[in-house]
Amino acid sequence: MAGQQAEQTIHVGGEWRAALSGATREILDPADAEPFAVVAEGDEKDADLAVAAARRAFDEGPWPHTPVTERAALLRRVADLLVRDREELGLLESRDAGKTLEEGRVDIDCVADAFRYFADLVVGEGGGRVVDAGSSDVHSVVVHEPVGVCALITPWNYPLLQASWKIAPALAAGNTFVVKPSEITPLTTVALLGLLAEAGLPAGVAGLVTGPGHTVGARLAEHPDVDLVSFTGGLASGTKVARAAADTVKKVALELGGKNPNVVFADACATGEGFDTAVDQALNAAFIHSGQVCSAGSRLIVEESLRERFVAELARRANAIRLGRGTEDGVECGPLVSEQQRAKTEAYVAAALAEGAVLRAGGKRPEPSGVRPATGYFYEPTVLDQCHRGMRVVREEVFGPVLTVETFATEDEAVALANDTEYGLAGAVWTADAGRARRVAGRLRHGTVWINDFHPYLPQAEWGGFGRSGVGRELGPAGLAEYQETKHVYQNLAPKPVRWFAG
Length: 503
Ligand code: NAD
What we know:
The chain has 503 residues and is an alpha/beta fold. The protein has 15 helices and 20 strands. The longest helix is centred in the first third of the chain and has 24 residues, at 101-124. The model has no long low-confidence stretch (mean pLDDT 97).
């Protein structure tokens, strides 16, 4: 990126450029609302240019036909470069998305893991699956090929991590792509495109257009020369993407929101250690990254007999969370990403209180302090007790630091509550009873189920949602398959006439 001007954040055909319109956007640090970077504000025309370059690179370039081992070697080089730049990228992610520096660093480690995982996976696939055609005169094999030009649209909460779950498998499979990061957190994706070039990716294979969803994103989703669109974001935008993609019958993958239950049985808290762990993890489930996590455990569903003890301790610890600028030592939780996100959170809390929820912690903006500028988008971790399914705050994704509490008396009731959502991304069950753990896990209609844990994911295990949490899967073998076409090659080694027609 040497010589690249600050606002040249659009990458087309191996070149960095400004928006065709010349428009730019300031990127704000959510901890103080001050601009700290400027990027190109692309539009539909920039998207068209990027798709044309990616199309050429796919139709004429070497990448789709590059041997798998070479593609994998490039992915591994990218992982090494990510490790080299971990500190710089972690800091950028922290400032851009408002997360703590440590979270930013962990994100970069996970990004490098994704590149390594897909490198190993694609090599391990081998050269296709030979099928027994029932005749020694026939050689029949099923092979995987790249889909083509992929449009990759990503959200602001885990900017580089979400991008890597798409970019790594897309490249491993031999595709070319245009990525559109969230307009409010594009910086690490811009940096990654530089690393791909440094690792030796041929020009044109990777494209990037910074800009808004309703222009750049919408154009990519409908573009006739795009073969696949993979989208991570909210339900409303995801629905628009699916509609826009329908006319050209693209492959569509959607990773959408969640309203994720954390079910706690009293037996999980029979010992002091069990209680401490379940409370600690409920706190982490709901409040890490200020709750701006698709799989946030934002619905605590706790056995009635345990409720008061559990919620009292949870509220005490929520009140003690140290909020501040993510780059400051000792800060445990950063601000929300934008004023809009905070206003949305405040509206949900106000509506819940009006509907009868009882405030046990938070519920307001914190006092400014040395680590919390008054202009930052901070909001206190909030616990709302006495909630029920009729409340919007229980049904809809807040995407902020808000935990609702519901209770149950029986196992059936717990399962019914946990499944009573239009989403189905993730959920957890806490119990000391192994049989109950397996029973409940088996009945939960969610793409990931944790037993006595919350939040871990593995690159080798599929991630995705039931219901309106999405279509398709990322990570794991299915996360590579999204980016592959399957072709059956049937070779007759001894061709003869079939004589169907007498002729
Ligand atoms: P968003 O839907 O507002 O935006 C996501 C991306 O889509 C952005 O790049 C945006 O510019 C673009 N976009 C917006 N409208 C578009 C349109 N009409 N056509 C094409 N692109 C469009 O979501 P967000 O606020 O950035 O992210 C938060 C959401 O993402 C939450 O709902 C969260 O649950 C979800 N999410 C899901 C996962 C998952 O793995 N399932 C992971 C992270 C985030």
